[in-house]
Amino acid sequence: DGGITQSPKYLFRKEGQNVTLSCEQNLNHDAMYWYRQDPGQGLRLIYYSQIVNDFQKGDIAEGYSVSREKKESFPLTVTSAQKNPTAFYLCASSMSSGGTGSTDTQYFGPGTRLTVL
Amino acid sequence: GQQLNQSPQSMFIQEGEDVSMNCTSSSIFNTWLWYKQDPGEGPVLLIALYKAGELTSNGRLTAQFGITRKDSFLNISASIPSDVGIYFCAGPNTGTASKLTFGTGTRLQVTL
Q: What is the DSSP string of A37-49?
């Protein structure tokens, strides 16, 4: 089945530890995205990547890092510098970027809920 | 920056009722997307609109791309319990088509 997978579904971390969230897609999409969602809130963009080996900061990139070594993978690391990391993290992908119409439509993974203890 | 305002923020309706929600912007959008998010899950795309004035249906859902390009509407007919969730509108940022701006969401609760 084609789609976006995120693992794990639930993640617990001790304060001060870095943690990496996985995101994989087999849709052959060029662009991938990471969002953060807090309770009762909308989605805020952390980082996005339009092509392999390239990525840009979103609106709330501080305390996070990403890599895009392969087209299908876009892992997100939540570092100890992130002051309030407990949240629901969503990964998405789209066929292309900078285009118009249907190619910009983003499809989401199931999310990872990170809790910092 | 661009902002999308959704209303209402939340609604409680009885099963079988029709639902209407909207999304407005101070700037023009060339694409409108409507997503539904179930609790603890990622948003799922419901309807995509690419042309001003376009009216598109997906089962009991109907969405319209406003003529002014600054608004969009989502209607759900004959609501059922599984319609419960948060509905988000979204549109691509001008100048950076790969980035989406999301509305704040409309939380729908359905009572039997």
A: E-TT--EEEEEEE
Decide if pLDDT at A70 tops 70.
yes
Q: With an 8 Å Cβ cutoff, are B50 and A90 in contact?
A: no
Give yes or no for a contact between B105 and B88, defined as CB atoms under 8 angstroms apart: yes
Count CB-CB contacts under 10 A for residue A13.
16
A50 CB near a chain B CB, below 8 Å? yes
CB contacts of A48 in chain B (<8 Å) are: 98-99
Rounded CA gap, B25 and B13, in Å?
26
- CB within 8 Å: B98 and A107: no
Q: Which residue of B has its CA nearest to A44?
A: B102
DSSP of A55-106: EEE-SS-TTEEE--SBTTB--EEE-TT-S---EEEEEEEES-SS--GGGG--
Q: How far apart are CA B32 and CA B30, in angstroms?
A: 7
* pLDDT digits 0-9 by tens, B25-55: 988 888 899 999 998 999 999 999 999 999 9
Q: Which residues of A touch B105 (CB under 8 A)?
A: 42
